[in-house]
Queue: 2 jobs
Job 1
Amino acid sequence: MGRSKLSPERRRLVLDLLSQGHKPMEVARRTGVSKTYIYELNHSLGGVYRPAGVAYSDRYLDRDERYELARLREAGYSLREIGRRMGRSASTISRELRRNHAPRTGQYQPERAHALAWQRQRRPKPSKLSQNPVLRAEVQRLLKKRYSPDQVAGRLRLLHGDNEAMQISHESIYRSLYVYPRGELTRELKASLRRGRVTRRRRGGSDETRGKIPGMVSIHDRPEEVESRLVPGHHEGDLIIGSTASNSAVGTIVERTTGYLTLLHLPHGRTADRVAEAVIDQMTALPDWFAKTLTWDRGREMARHLHITATTGIQVYFADPHQPQQRGLNENTNGLIREYLPKGTDLSVHTITDLAAVADELNDRPRKRLGYHTPREMFASLLINDLTSVATTT
């Protein structure tokens, strides 16, 4: 269904579904509206939607009134009759239609009109980023380090807790980028976004193929302390695969309490022997109290898990088939790593030094669940506590 034939009610349904986080293709399927129109609409709003129920004053038309105006207008009622039915003056209706109609078609689209009115009401108040060059420079610096807007906002609160001028919400950053573009400011900040997207999108996940491995111990047999993330030393692991021709891979292991990342260098393939050797080399370099368990998916590369346990004392557990969310921290971390090691590329070209640089950058990136501290800071704090405890007992 094209734009010109879409009723105000259908437009509102589309916007409501998009604002709830549904993807454009899913919205098209559920509403019967053209996916092209939905993608254009989502792009025009930058993927960021005004919070429901927000209004400046009762004297302004709200969203419901704008949809009612569009419905009455399409029904052919005069401006005076529309005003009477809505309890508004005819001049208010006339002014609304004149200000917020589409320039090319002359149509009145209530969602677009609502967005225009919102922007017009906000116009007298310049954005915090445009007014504060020091804050803008700091935001841009952190974005260039591949921090997300949420991580930028949280890190600024952590570093400048006593300076309100150096703090900004992640929503303000997103809106500066996508909803209220301001020329060069927007171009500067967008250029620093780690994903480089023109609209704001939610992340997704995918299932993987699992194999059968002798002697597997189920994830459901893990100690209770693993699930709580209160006790350090419990890890999640997986492989990210390179191009088919290269047969290359990189192993990823992330600790559940701190988010501390370890990468496995596998330039010559991902056989069970090579993966076991890499896991043993990396995990034995960690303190014993920081290397207790490892939860992996059901890939055949972990077929020698019993050898890993016998050599290191680390118990290996396996997630259920097609349940990547059971290793959610590792799955999310792999998504971040893919920004450095893209899919379909030959991963064998990356040296141990290259992988160490990737791990360092991610271990120095703040995490919301850690109070915007970094994984390295959390690991260092645990090391200090351990050394203090040893000194006290001796």
Job 2
Amino acid sequence: MSFPRATGILLHPTSLPSRGGIGDLGPAAYEFVDFLAAARQGLWQVLPLGPLGYGYSPYSSTSAFAGNPLLISLERLAERGWLDRSRLLELPDHAEPVDYPLVFARKMPLLAKAARNFVRSASGNARARFERFCTENHWWLEDFVLFDALRARSHLESWNQWSRDLVRRQPRAMEKAREQLASDLGFRRAIQFAFYEQWHSLHHYCAQRSVRIVGDIAIFVNYDSADVWTHPQLFCLDEKLDPEVVSGVPPDFFSKTGQRWGNPLYRWDVMRSRGYEWWVHRLRWATRNCDYIRLDHFRGFEQSWEIAAREATAVNGRWVDGPKDDIFEKLREALGGLPFFAEDLGYITPEVHALRDRLQIPGMAVLQFGFGDSGAHMYLPHRCTPEKVIYTGTHDNDTTVGWWNSGVSDHERRNVEAYLGRAEDGIHWAFIRAAQGSVASLSVFPLQDVLGLGSEARMNTPSRNDGNWRWRFPSGALTRELAEKLANLAELTDRLPQPCPQPPHEDFAA
């Protein structure tokens, strides 16, 4: 699929300056969309939106289908009577870095109370919408809320530590758990209802302003997730349902010992025999909730780095074949198209490029990677084609200013200055202009680069276990002058937004 020429900003909702210690889908999100519209930006790229698991990473979720409760706006729930507005005073109203333990401790009890209030008292149109949501999403919702309730009851122990009959999903044990946890299941359904009503409302607001949402799908899922617990036969597990092998990448630019992600690998043969049904459901759900999809670690569809579960690092692993064209043929048949682009960074073989080319899925180019030796020049604008999505940097990179001030080698610095010259308004604007002026169909840059921030604003450092995913921008940072500068550049580089089809959702109220 080729995308119409456009530009946009990468910003995960947790980074918004919302009230409550973490960004959410409330007023600050709508203000950001207004800024995008004023800046003539046609894209808002987000990271995965699922509930957080280990390390608070959006790429480490307890469900491939559920939404992250921490992104729900309590302000919007209070406006609709789910919660007394006075309770919002218990939450901080300034945009400091996210303190996840504190946010969980303060926000989740209020959210649970609001959801219980709704389940107890909702009526009329709100009750009808809730019941319709539960009915239409029964296929993933019921397994998730039971998993979530059992996980909470076991003080967040992994599901393989539960009683044997629940680990094995014995029917009597499952029925008994549903009876014992009936109240919990009800409010957890309401939480998911609130998330998706707020998300659909925001998506609709974006479409009205010609802003398309770019979602992100992590190729793998957590072992401690509703998906693995519900469908263990789809994953490489042993007779005890423990992982046999796990995912990662070998040593690379980011880490000398590679990255041991720890997600269980798929049994692609089993998935193939079932027509890739789980993946069809997953990507149909993704395309319903976003306009374009970034496929993280696209390489894994061609080959994955398989690490024995007993290994502590990713050094000792091997490449094993993925499903290749087969899965995408099924997806195209089921979805009618592939509105995807591929994260194809790092060590990519000719076979991976050939797969992407056969599927006509655009790949990525990252400017920060382009100024090393001659092999890196593939990421520079003059090597781009329209079948590319170009970035100044990603969530895994340092900010452009941070990289320039402390991460760039003398060789790279000379190459940057030879290629881009010296920019009076900063290296970040030199990078943004270079990306915008390329022939790549989509040009995206992190908000940190638009704001010219240093390493203190970095979102993620791969292989570091703490301190990631915390950055938030302050209120007042998105100025009219900044919007005008971006708008002028979008117009000059022929990247003005095109009208969006309206998402097929109605009655947004949560």
